[in-house]
Amino acid sequence: MPFWTIVAAQDTTPTESANPFQAVLDFFKSPTWHFVTLMFYFFLAVLWISCAYWVFKDARRRIDDKIVLAVAVLTGIVFGPVGLVVYAIVRPPETLGERLEHELEVAVMEARIGDEARCSFCKTPVREDYLVCPTCGRRLRTPCPSCRRPVDPQWRVCPYCEADVHVASPAFDRA
Ligand SMILES: [Zn+2]
Ligand SMILES: [Zn+2]
Questions:
Q1: Among residues 18, 19, 38, which one has the least CA distance to residue 30?
Q2: pTM above 0.70, yes or no
């Protein structure tokens, strides 16, 4: 093989791939890349709308104040996934239904405690071990005939000594 042929061959080889990034640049101009970009924006839009919708749905169940609700929904729409994260951090911990349930539970518990701690006749606050109401003098509990501890008139048996108190206290005023 003559020398010039080798030189020519060596010359032509580098010019063919003069720019090694040409293939990459071509890819970015190709319809495939265009399609990938479109899909990316499409999924971003879907993600954005889903986030905004989730914030709207969740906020409606947790917030009854119209203005706060509007701010939460706007945060979801404007900031999308970021808004969702922010909303998830600052949102009320319980839904309106859960809050109502919780308030009812507390009210029932308070009412029960209030009943137990008050004279059933004049509503004076009384202690568990009072035998009579200090205000109206009505009998609240009777002393157990066996151990003398205060027992409720509703009880059949003394919880302290197991004595039968219902029969043993016929003098109790059952009014
Ligand atoms: Zn009383
Ligand atoms: Zn007893």
A1: 38
A2: no
